Please model this.
Amino acid sequence: MSNLKKTLTPALVALGLAFTLASAALLVSGFNPITAYRAMWKNFATGDGLITSINIGARYYIAAISVAIALKMRVFNIGTNGQYQIAAMFGAVTGAALNLPAPLHIAITLLVAMASGALWSSIIAILSVTRNVNPVLSGIMLNGIGASLIAYLMQSKWTNFRDPARLEYGSTRQIPVSGRLPVLSYGRQKLPDGTYVGDGKFGINGVFKITDGKRTEITTWSLQSYVLLAVFVGVVFYLLVYRTRFGFDLRASGGNPSAARSSGINPRSMIMITMALSGAIAGLIGIGIVLSSNDQLAYGDRFPGGLGFAGIGIALLGRNHPVGVAAAALFWAALDQGARGLTTVKVPGEIAVILQGSLLFIAVIVYAVSERKALAAFMREAAALTHAARAQGAAS
Amino acid sequence: MKLITSFVTRLSGWQRALAGAGFVFLLLAISARLFEAPGLTGSSTVSRALALSVPVILAGLGGLVAERAGVFNIGLEGMMIMGTWGAGYLGWHFGPWGALLGGLLGGLVGGALLAIATVTFAVEQTVAGVAINIASLGICRYLSSVFFNQKGPLGDTGTIADSPSVRQFGSTLSFPGIGDRLTEIEDKKWFLVSDLAGVVRGLTVDVAWSSVLLLLLIPAVWYLVWRTPFGLRLRSSGEKPAAAESLGVNVMATRWIAVVMSGGLAGLGGAWLVLDVQKYQQGMTGSRGFLGIAAMIFGNWMPGLLTVGALLFSFSQSVGFQLGFESRALIGAVGLVFALSAVVTLVKRRLVPGIVVGVIAGAVLWFAFKNKEVNDSFTKALPYLLTLIVLGVASKRQRPPAAAGMPYIKGQAG
Model:
């Protein structure tokens, strides 16, 4: 219990400080924070706000786990942002080109996406291991190169990368039915004109119907099965990092590199394996957008761009722990979702990004301070024990 | 071979930077001839390269000041973003000087945030820097939505992503009386001579005042870090903070000042960008903060070579704007570098690496000869690609400040 309290307290302190800061920002710019937060809460808690938050949170979660596994050995995979986009594009192209029975079709698409993410991240690892290049810098450079590579392929003569039916904006071809991830469940509601909504054709946002000049919202309850994939990734991450020899080596390399090396762990191969894993997980970030029946079903200009950076923030916020990261990812997504409701009270929705940014910044400080305090307490305890043991030795 | 290495090692930092620049010039002149792209050493390419190098140099200098004091500043990008916002805000109110001041202030705020986290609270430096990069995006987006969404003094309206227009300095600087003469020589197309004329003209004619003012910070930073008592304290805090503290240096205060200055420098780089485009645009920094860090590593934490590195990156960006065969000529130049290093490796009797590099050189040169027009996407990727290659070549031999990246807790000296 006290352990849980020890981990929760810093997070709550950071949360309180961040909300205070955001409230101050709102007050200074002439908005009422209470109204703003109420509108955010309303947009999150009503309609399909919660479902959307979970769907978006799942992306954030996988992004953060991809970052977290590298952070376990203190390597920053800032290249996640390029890896997941490259992987999503190749995954989308593969998925659209195949025609196989459903489970196999999806499995191959996922594998291709993971492999392309891993290949792209391995460049960072190779440069770091053989040429001592800082992974953060090579990651940034590879993000830039990756964006160009995607632009090049999508304008190239290979029609696999370009859907002729959707030339007005760049997009790969649509994933056929057998390659789509199923939608978990959907509310079906009969409309007055006899049709149904909620059969998965509708977007994740609510559907509106106007009757007698009144707008009524019809909730479509459509959780993506991608959410289950995120849970699976979290469980595998937990087992791998906390329950295997490899995970022990990983944490040892991050905690005390020189001790790890003298115990026989090869830091170079650790970096290679970890970065490949991180890239492979990054390959799954965009797969929900590409393969889910209630999402885009292709890779294109409308694909969201900054999930990798959000993943870094969320991983740091959740302290690289599978459960902490899950809470952070859901909270991050809930803030996104809440911000969409701010237009009704005429408050800039950007207050959500302020909240996310300041929360992250305050959290890393609060975590560092609490870790130092814990370490100091541990040292005092150890010193007291040694002292007592010595006193006993002298007495006997 | 040994002669050359011993010659190079005897040179001082500045001489090495000059020698490097001379080598690059020779290479580009040869490549311009070989690939029929006179614009490669033309004045327009060089003048744009010089201009584009300014924000990268300033970010690099910022990184240098912080890291020489022992703090690895990966948050330069975020500080530059804050600088662009400050420059946009004060710029549309008070003109170009306001923009410079705004950039400085924005950067100082960013620097102070990093100093609070890394120096006062000893947060792991990369973590804090990355957090600042993410947080600064949010802060600036919120501020833009509140302040820029209105009519500016020049009559145009800003949006959430753009500020209203900012005035640039009215005139530009040209060395008197040499511009026309140089144009004449440049047009003659004499090998090396015309190339040199193009480069000199690019560096001396029509240089923006914002560039001139900010480039003066290169010698200023050098003087501060290597020729003043404060600079000595700064470097000792970055090499051996415990020893410095035992000699009475206030390591915490020194690092604080260095990190705040570092942010200010990056912020001024942001101000340059705002003055160049004449407004604030969301995302206008385009990884230049990170390119600055790369230039700093390339320059072995010295201002002279750092400048050469920044010029190299901005040159490849500037080449991308040219319409002729310049892009392929630059790729050809990279191929020539590979070929040269292959020869050197083979002379040293290291067969396998020599052959590998030789094959890469062959492929790159073949690509340059084969394609007259280089795809636009490839041109855009070139600065990043070049940076990656340069980092790969340079990172191994460099010597960063000994205590850079390590949090220091007061009283560590005992």
User: Anything to note?
Assistant: Residues 258 and 301 of chain B are 14 Å apart (CA to CA). The first strand of chain B starts at residue 172 and ends at 173.
